[in-house]
Every structure is written in C-alpha cells, then in structure tokens.
Specification:
By secondary structure, this protein is α+β, with helices and mostly antiparallel strands. The protein is 23% helix and 29% strand. The radius of gyration is 28 Å and the shape is globular.
Length: 742
C-alpha cells in the first residue's frame, strides 16, 4: 500500500469516501455524485438498477436455525450495493458486504435491523468486488437477493481484438479496471484507498480516450484543472505535466481553453517549484533500484517540450526563449552525465534500470545509435518496473521498432493476470511487492487503475493516435509485430475511428474509416515485409516503388525506412500491400479450450487435514475466515488456507461430490494468495472416503492456478495431498473446480 502524504483536498476526498451510514432500509437513494470543492451535485453517476446475481450459494427461499452466510456471484468486478428481501420480522440484524476483504480498509461492514412489515433492505454505501456476502440471523427466511450496480456515467465504446486471445483478455480486463477506478474522481483503486494520485490519474485519463464515450472527458478535464500540490508526490506531477497528461488531453479534445488556464501554473511548477531529488518524489512502485536522476531528467525534458507547445498554442511566445534554453541545456549535457557506453545510468544506482533507459528513448534524449545497446543490455534483461511504469517500457520498445518484444514482455509480465478468474488487473505483477519489502503483498488491490494494456494495444500496437489537436489529423501506423489480425475502434470527439488489419504470406491490408472533418495519415509498415512490391487503395494500384495516381481523397505523403505513407480524406479506405511477408511468431497462440463441462458443485462438501481457521489479513489485521467450504463456494476472493503451518508433506484437502461422478481434470485456483500454490502434490480418489486409490496424478504447483489433468476417473471423493515442503508459504485453495471433457 502506498504511504500517502495527503493535501487538504485529498483528505476531503478520502474522508468523504470513508463516511459510512450503517443503516439500510427499503428506500432507494438516487445515485449521484457531489463535487467536494463546490458542493454541487454533478450527476456523474449512473444507476444501473437492481440486477440478479449470476450465482447464489443456495436455493431461495431459504432459512436456517442458526446464523448463516449467503454468498452471491456478480458477473464482473463493479461498484455495487447489496439488496435483500426477507420475511417481515422485527429486530433481526442483517449484515452485508463484498467478499473482497480489501473494502474493509475503507468501508465498515453494513448492518441493518429489520422492522416489522418491511421486506426489502438495501445497503446505503457502495462497495466493490465480484461477490457479495450476507450474514443472516437464525430463523430469518431470505426470499430474494439482488444488487444495485452504479458507476461513472459513461459507456465502453472503444474496442480491440486480435488473433491472440491473451491480448484480447488483457484489453477487456484493462477496460473493466479503468471503469471501476472512475467515480467522483480517478481512484488508484476503489476498495483500499480511493485516492486521486496523479500517477494513477495519468494512465486513467489516457485510457479514457481509447475506452469510453466523450462523457468521460469531463473527469479528464477535472484532473487537468486540479490545482497542483507540489508536496503530494512531485514526481507524479512530472509524469502528468507533459506528453502523457496535459498534451495527451489536448490532442484528444482540442480544449485549448483548459490548456491556457494551466499554462502559468505549469510553467511555475517546472521553473520555480520543482526541486530535483525531492525526498517525496515518486516515479514507480516497482523495485527500489530505480534510477531517479535519469528518470526525472527525462520527464522534466518531456514536460518542457510540452510547455513549449502549450506556449505556441496559447500565445505565450515570450516564454519560448527561456524554455528553449533549458531544453538545450538538458539535451547537450544528457549523454555526458549519464551515458555509460552501453546504457544510461546515474550514481543513484549500481546497475542500469529499465525505467530510466526506456524514458531516455521516449524523451528523445537517447540517440537512435544507442537503441540496440540499450535493448540488449537493459530492456531485454531487466524488469524493475511495476505494471504502472511498464507502459513506458512497452512504448519505448515500440518506438525502437521492437514491438514484438513489447508484446512478449506484456504477455510474460501479466502471466498470472491473463488466465485468472478475476475480471480486473492488479496493483502488482504476480501480487509481488517489488519494493523494499520484495515479498508477496496480500493487501495489494486486484483492481488498480494504472495498468496500461488497453492504451498500449490500441495506441501503439494498432497504431491509432491523434497527431493534431482534437483528432483533426490522426495517424494509423500499425506496429502489429507477430499478430496477423487486429480490429480496433477508438471513440473520438469527431466520431469513431475504426481500423482493421489483416496480413497473410503475400498481402497486408488495412481498412480504415476516417470520420468527417478529419484527415488520416496511413502507413504500410515496411518491416512487416521481406519484400514490398505494390500498394493499392480501394482496388486501384497507387505505388510500385514510387507513387503513381490515386483515387480522389488519397494523397502521397512519403517514404521512410519504416513506412510508406498516404493522406486519406473522410471515407472508407482499404490499403493493401502486396509482396512477401514472414508469418511466424515467437509466442505460441493460446491453446484452444477443449470441450468440457465444469461439474456443478452445489451440495458438495469440503474438508482438510486441519480444522477450519482464520487469520489476520494484512497490516490492518482484518480477521478473515478460511474454511474448507469456501474453496467450493464459486467465489475466487474467498477460500481455504491451512494457517496452522507452512507447506509440509501429508497436508490434504478433499471434496465429497455426494454422488459418484466422472471427471478428468481439476483446477486449484489460489490466485488471491498467488504464492500459496502446492509445492508438490498427489491426487487420489475414493468411492467411500475411507479407502483411497493409488495416485492418479502428481506434479508441482503453478503460480496462481494449477491445472491437473489425468485419464478419466470415476469416484465420489477427490483428495489432493501435499508431498512437498515450502518453509515460506502456506497452502491455499480459493477455488477447487472439477471438469469432464466431452
């Protein structure tokens, strides 16, 4: 968890998020948001109405003679308020919350006392997660449960698909993550903190323009106009006050008025306020070996370049001389200060940092002649950056023409997020706190707004981005690497920009829709061909080594070592390059799922070698129950953990399916406790729960999710026994799923 140095404004935001009313009734409040600076109702929040859960842990109506818990599954991670209908009774306490334990950092569990004659109750405060849990008193009959989803009033209108489902999954999870981190302001996460860090706000603002309709732009504008707070992580201010924040906003909106309003404060921050080496500077959460001097110099240089463009756009020409002098000073001294012959490095660190070297490339301070050495000696081997800063490593690799390496790095670093059942992207890769702790972080959010896949895939890999303010001119310059098909739609203030790409062994086609009042610069990438012979547009040949004639609306732009480029007027255009294209991939496509059924676990029971227990979760010491039954409740946020000891031979976990079933695969999902995978395991089966078979499968656990396949079996009981030793981690199973191929 970040240690937060809060300004007065941020304290108000934080306090507002923590104001909890503990009573609920059948009255339903109108969903809205309040601007905490003015107190006005902004009506930014959408009420999606009451919805049915996609799964409930028991059939309703239901009552028990002892207190019991009802668990309910949502279709995805969202902001929601639980709702319940019970038989009218007097004086019974109902308790409801999310199954996500991180919400307890901010939101005390809500309770309400039933009133005679009233059947329906709804939580007054939203929480987030992918499941709800109700604690029901003895003797109370639950008739129905629902949930009310709310969220920022915008729709996901952008899209991205390609021939590799891993990246499609990442784009969708990134979209869900970004949406869940929006409400009255951009959150770092919606459960544990809800703080408006500029560092988290930068990628969240950027993603808005590739994911959501134009209603999201109001939240982006609020961030642009927010008063700067130099003591509130000034390094994050540098990340925002340049190409990635202010200028990004201007290119996508054309809102020169807002840029003019912040020009003076931005100039003051850069020339008077910002102090290099500030103790509260924060650039990334990853490993602490970050090369701060190089990183901040690069961002400062980028910001000065943006300030120069802002000065031109807003008529502050008198400031250009001062800005140019500072830019030149940095540019002329950068290599002398930091270039070490094979990479960039300051005296802050003992080894080269991927973040610093990526930013040298992105800032344009690294001479292209250094790029290959930077890649070979640093970017190909070093992974200090977190999933926040990797955005700039991915972009640097694409700028260097190594987009294949960018995609491979993305797939590798998101290795545990892609296959898991969680619908959002996390605060830390592999839930590993790669900072001074260098350890598993149980309190890291599984929904954190700084993840960049949606942005990188749409902007850099598909290559669709504005190059003049307000999308008056935009480019389609794909860097598809080993992908063979891409389809993207980008929502803009001038209408959707749609592009689809497909390549075969002898053709490379780009279909693009250019909205009215815009111009597109479209490039056929030379690097995708071993031999490019001809290019045609809408069936008419226009290039065969040199430009010829073209349909009306198409103009010649030029050639570089990377692209053959054309200017396209509004309309629909198909560009096709003909020649020879190597179609190969260093990343095998995800295996197509076999046809199988997941066995219905309703009515099953679970047991383990140790009694059910609980543990104190994170530094906040939140008590979390981890009974065996939670491993088969359909919610990957809750599960079983042997808290008596770390892993040792002889530990076991088993399920009783209550009847003899056929099956040939089990999946042990411990993504929530990612490092608690079994060191070694053996699977046995039984008809009576007493006599067990020889082992039907053995192996080593995998990080997060362990899939165990074996020849088709027939039994009632399944037991997994730990046969290895791990002195560091406990053994956890948060979901135990059983399958049969068909």
């Amino acid at each position: 968890m970040k240690v937060v140095l809060m300004s007065t404004y941020m304290k108000v935001l934080f306090a507002a998020a923590c104001l909890i009313a503990i009573c609920a009734s059948k009255e339903i409040a109108v969903a809205s948001s309040v601007d905490l600076k003015s107190g006005r109702n902004t009506n930014m929040i959408r009420d999606y109405g009451l919805k049915n859960y996609i799964g409930v842990s028991c059939d309703l109506p239901h009552r028990e003679d002892r207190p019991w818990k009802l668990k309910c599954k949502l279709p995805y991670n969202c902001q929601f308020q639980p709702w319940i209908s019970v038989d009218p009774v007097q004086g019974k306490q109902l308790v409801f919350n999310s199954t996500n334990p991180l919400v307890l950092y901010l939101t005390p569990t809500e309770t309400c006392t039933t009133v005679a004659g009233i059947r329906e109750y709804e939580a007054k405060n939203w929480v987030s997660g992918e499941g709800a849990v109700y604690t029901i008193p003895a003797g109370v009959t639950v008739r129905a449960v629902k949930y009310r989803e709310t969220g920022y009033d915008t729709d996901i209108t952008g899209s991205f698909t390609c021939n590799d489902e891993d990246f499609n999954i990442l784009w969708r999870k990134a979209a869900r993550t970004a949406y869940l981190c929006m409400r009255d302001h951009f959150y770092d996460c919606p459960d544990r903190e809800r703080v408006g860090f500029w560092g988290d706000g930068t990628p969240e603002l950027d993603q808005c323009f590739y994911l959501f309709d134009t209603r999201s732009h109001e939240l982006c504008k609020d961030l642009v106009l927010r008063p700067l707070e130099p003591e509130f992580y000034p390094g994050q201010h540098l990340e925002f006050l340049g190409e990635y924040g202010l200028w990004f906003y201007y290119l996508h909106t054309g809102d020169v008025s807002s840029i003019a309003k912040v020009f003076d404060t931005t100039k003051q921050f850069l020339f008077e306020t910002y102090k290099f080496g500030h103790k509260n500077t924060w650039y990334d959460w990853g490993k602490d070996s970050k090369d701060t001097s190089v990183i901040e110099t690069c961002f400062y240089y980028i910001d000065l370049g943006t300030l120069r463009k802002m000065a031109v756009a807003t008529g502050h020409n008198a400031d250009l001389k001062m800005i140019d002098q500072k830019l030149q000073e940095i540019r002329l001294s950068f290599d002398a200060r930091y270039w070490k012959g094979r990479w960039y490095q300051s005296s802050d660190v003992n080894t080269p940092d991927d973040r610093a070297n990526a930013m040298a490339v992105n800032a344009g301070l690294a001479n292209p002649s250094h790029w290959e050495s930077i890649y070979t000696n640093v970017l190909a081997t070093t992974t200090n950056s977190s999933c926040f800063f990797d955005r700039w490593v991915f972009e640097a690799l694409c700028k260097m023409g190594k987009q294949d390496k960018a995609l491979l790095r993305m797939a590798s670093r998101y290795r545990t997020m892609i296959p898991c059942s969680f619908t959002t992207l996390w605060e830390h890769y592999d839930r590993w706190w790669a900072s001074w702790k260098n350890a598993y972080d149980d309190a890291s959010s599984l929904n954190h707004g700084w993840n960049p896949p949606a942005l990188v895939l749409s902007q850099d890999i598909a290559g669709v981005r504005p190059i003049e303010p307000g999308w008056s001119t935009f480019e389609v310059m794909p860097k598809e690497a080993f992908l063979t098909s891409i389809k993207v739609s980008v929502p803009t203030i001038r209408g959707a920009v749609k592009m689809s790409l497909r390549k075969t062994a002898n053709t490379y086609s780009i279909d693009v829709e250019v909205p009215d009042n815009t111009t597109a610069i479209v490039g056929i990438p030379r690097g995708s061909f071993s031999s490019l012979k001809t290019i045609d547009v809408n069936g008419q040949a226009i290039w065969n080594g040199s430009f010829g004639t073209a349909p009306q609306g198409i103009q010649w732009v030029g050639e570089t070592a990377e692209y053959v480029t054309f200017r396209a007027a509004p309309g629909r255009w198909r560009f096709v390059g003909h020649g020879r294209l190597p179609i190969s991939t260093p990343k095998p496509l995800p295996a197509r799922g076999r046809k199988e059924i997941a066995l219905n676990r309703r009515g099953w029971s679970a047991a383990a070698s140790t009694p059910d227990g609980s543990y104190l979760f994170s530094g906040a010491k939140i008590p979390i129950e981890v009974p065996a039954a939670d491993a088969i409740d359909g919610d990957a946020w809750t599960g079983w953990r042997d808290i008596s000891h770390t892993q040792y031979p002889g530990q076991w976990f088993q399920v009783d399916m209550k009847t003899v079933r056929e099956f040939d695969k089990i999946v042990l999902d411990n993504t929530w406790a990612c490092w608690d995978s079994p060191e070694q395991y053996s699977v046995t089966i039984s008809m009576d729960g007493v006599t067990w078979s020889p082992s039907v499968a053995q192996g080593h656990g995998k990080l997060g999710m362990t899939t165990i396949s074996f020849p088709r079996q027939k039994a009632r009981w399944i037991r997994v026994t730990q046969t290895g030793t791990n002195a560091t981690y406990n053994w956890s199973i948060f979901e135990f799923n059983v399958f049969l191929g068909v």
